[in-house]
Amino acid sequence: MATVNEQITDAVTQSNVKVVAESPAMALSNVYQSAAHSTGIMFENAVNAQNQQNILGQAATTQGVIQIYSMDTIADAVSIAKILNP
Q1: Short name of one Pfam family for this protein (predicted)?
Q2: What pLDDT digit, counting tens, does each position of 16-54 carry?
Q3: Domain range for residue 72?
Q4: Is residue 67 part of a domain?
Q5: Average per-residue pLDDT in the chain?
Q6: What is the DSSP track for the chain?
């Protein structure tokens, strides 16, 4: 059986150790990246929901103002109808 130079086996061993030693850092960086992406999507959804709530609030306010302004015309129409149909 042929012997291999110790420098070669040492270089191969060191490169394997380097890969194994870096794997926890790579895994943790993937976790952090996934968490950051999820947090970004969460904030996007929160902003979108808030925007929709603002639109609904403006629509409700507009409907309320329209009803307030139309009260006089409804009262006028009822009184005119009573005058015309005794």
Answers
A1: RebB
A2: 777 777 888 889 999 999 999 999 999 999 999 999 999
A3: 41-85
A4: yes
A5: 87
A6: -----HHHHHHHHHHHHHHHHHHHHHHHHHHHHHHHHHHHHHHHHHHHHHHHHHHHHHHHHHHHHHHHHTHHHHHHHHHHHHHH--
Residue type, 65: V
Compute the CA torsion angle 30, 34, 37, 39 (nearest 10 deg): -130
**Residue found under tokens 């947090």:** 39
In a domain, residue 7? The reply is: no
Helix axes 71-84, 6-69, angle to 10 degrees: 30
Q: Which residue has the tokens 């603002």?
A: 54
Q: Evaluate whether residue 31 is within a structural domain.
A: no
- Domains in the chain: how many in total? 1
The structure tokens 């999507």 sit at 41
How far apart, in whole angstroms, are the C-alpha atoms of residue 33 and residue 39?
Answer: 10
